[in-house]
Design a protein that fits this description.
- The chain has 238 residues and is of the alpha/beta class.
- It has one domain (3-235): Rossmann fold.
- It has eight helices and ten strands.
- The strands form two sheets. A six-stranded mixed β-sheet has the order 6-7-8-3-9-10, sandwiched between helices. Strands 2-1-4-5 form a four-stranded antiparallel β-sheet, covered by helices on one side.
- Helix 6 (177-192) links the parallel strand 7 (165-169) and strand 8 (196-201).
- Helix 3 (103-113) crosses helix 4 (118-131), helix 3 (103-113) packs parallel to helix 5 and helix 4 packs across helix 5.
């Protein structure tokens, strides 16, 4: 399976006055196109730092990252922003929807920055809302939607630019178990349709829905396991 993301000896160190914190330590792995991958570990293990570097939101102190074979080291912030807009979709725990925009406007927003015309923006946004079962709520505002519905809208927004990879940071963390399972079902379906999905989580049930789990501890990869996705109850035994 060709790699869509390659990390080579990645480290990330933060310095504040005399304090040095090594958040990521010499991490290397590939993510294949169409993989559904969980990056799992306890709080402070470096999961989110690793995702931010893969998502071009942060840069490694050492090592190299390749996105679809392109080395991202040395790119300007402008170049990184354009690459991020073209290649990556993000889903966060807190949804990050704009309260004064309805669902379809929130989904269409990334296309504004890509210079897509208004009619085409609405067409693509409607298609993505339909894909996540939210077309009937297109004109509703975030305050009129449940948490699960808001996360579905956020997932639709992550898909609207047809990204190469979806990066999801604790995407079910603010949801109840039933709604979280529904959202995980969307990610699973995306993977089955060939979308590359990386989910950052500390939750065994969430990780158990993926086909591969990379486990972090103190900034290092301590396991990299291919698994058979489980039902939520079975996943709790991982």
């Amino acid at each position: 399976m060709p790699a869509i993301v390659s990390l080579r000896s990645i480290s990330r160190t933060y310095r504040s006055d005399a304090v040095v914190v090594a958040a990521i330590r010499d991490v290397s792995f590939d993510i294949g196109r169409g993989e559904t991958l969980a990056i799992m570990g306890p709080s402070g293990s470096g999961k989110s730092t690793l995702m931010h570097m893969m998502g071009l939101l942060d840069t490694p102190s050492e090592g190299r990252i390749y996105l679809e074979g392109e080395a991202i080291a040395g790119l300007s912030e402008d170049q990184r922003s354009r690459l991020r807009a073209r290649k990556l979709g993000f889903v966060f725990q807190s949804y990050n929807l704009l309260p004064r925009h309805n669902a379809i406007e929130n989904v269409a927003l990334p296309l504004v920055y890509s210079g897509v015309g208004s009619k085409e923006r609405m067409r693509r946004a409607e298609r993505c809302l339909h894909a996540v079962g939210m077309a009937h709520r297109a004109r509703h505002f975030p305050k009129q939607l449940s948490g699960g519905e808001q996360q579905r809208v956020a997932i639709a927004r992550s898909l609207v630019c047809d990204p190469a990879i979806i990066l999801a940071d604790e995407p079910t963390g603010a949801l109840d178990s039933r709604t979280g399972a529904e959202v995980l079902g969307l990610f699973r379906a995306m993977g089955e349709n060939g979308q590359t999905v990386v989910i950052v989580t500390h939750d065994r049930n969430v990780a158990g829905q993926c086909k591969r789990i990379i486990r972090l501890l103190d900034g290092r990869v301590v396991a990299d396991d291919a698994i058979i996705p489980q039902t939520p109850n079975e996943a709790s035994r991982i």
